[in-house]
Design a protein that fits this description.
The chain is of the alpha+beta class and 358 residues long. The chain folds into two domains: 225 residues, no CATH class; 93 residues, no CATH class. The protein is 59% helix and 17% strand. It is built from ten helices and six strands. Strands 1-2-3-4-5-6 form a six-stranded antiparallel β-sheet, with no helix packed on it. A hairpin with a 2-residue loop joins strand 5 and strand 6. It is elongated.
Amino acid sequence: MRILPFMVIRSFIPIFLVALSFFVLLLEMVDLFANLWRYLNQEVSFSQIMMIQFMYLPKCVSFATPISVLFSTAYCLGESYARNELIAVFGAGIPLFRFVIPLLVMSILISLFGYFFEEGWVIDTYRQKNEMVKAAINESTTFSNSNVTVLGENIRTIYHADYYNDQNNSLSGLIVTKRDTDGKFLQRIDAETAVWDEEGVWRLTRVRIFTIEGDTMSEQDFDTLTDRELTLDPENFRTLTNNVEEMRIGDAREWIDKLRRAGLPYREALTMYYNRFSFTFAPFVVALLSSAIGGRFRKNILLMSLLSSLVFSVIYYVAQMVMRLFAKYDLVAPVVGAWFALFLFLILGILFMRGART
């Protein structure tokens, strides 16, 4: 009895490593051929291309892990059925769920490793890979922005600028509206230009200030003005180019809070944030599902295991993509959009496991 779990794990690990290598190579080739025409147009050297693909390797490992677990689990059980090994196991009174516990434990360990692997390595290398691609194909990114409106840190101050110049951290056509705690209008500041100062405030030029006192409104004009309350960082006015997939958990949370504060769309980013957690449990869920269906293959085990892995992976990612779109357009909550596909497969795995032959 003590030997059986080690036999299951020993048969699982080599197949998992081979499957992981295969799917990683497949993802690398897809990415390479998708960008090859751009590399050729820009005459990117072979060494640069290989470096880009090397930096993409950790992300491929992260993507390929769930489908590799699904394939290797289904293949191991299919082989056991084909060799009639499970007849002896079931004859000894060991149910299927108890037999696959070592595989489920392995999938949990892989899930935990995947989370720390993602945070510690994948995010940095994936960001560097994207930067290297942009540099190789001469794709420039500008953070300057036009017609931008941002909420201040205290939510009582509203900034609106016709244009933000990221090169010199300046604003043109700035309008600042200040409100009290009840949301009532207090003051409006119009400035032709504003430049971010080293002291952490905006220095305004050609300024007009409108203030309400009681039932009357007063106006003041200044050539230059420094308002110590205007301390919103210039990064808040930049074009939104940040990608949650390139951020660690803490940075992603701060970015989403910044989007909320600015009154900008944040649901898609929040869905991707929750998806970082749901994706961690994907190896365990697909291991449970493949444990229930893997033993059904007695012929063409390699082909059927590969086919079932691809089919269920496509269903999973399509369901995830659809739910993300629903969350983006406020049809479902972001947390539902991120976790729905995982819970769907978890329920299917439990149902299939209950109906599996033992």
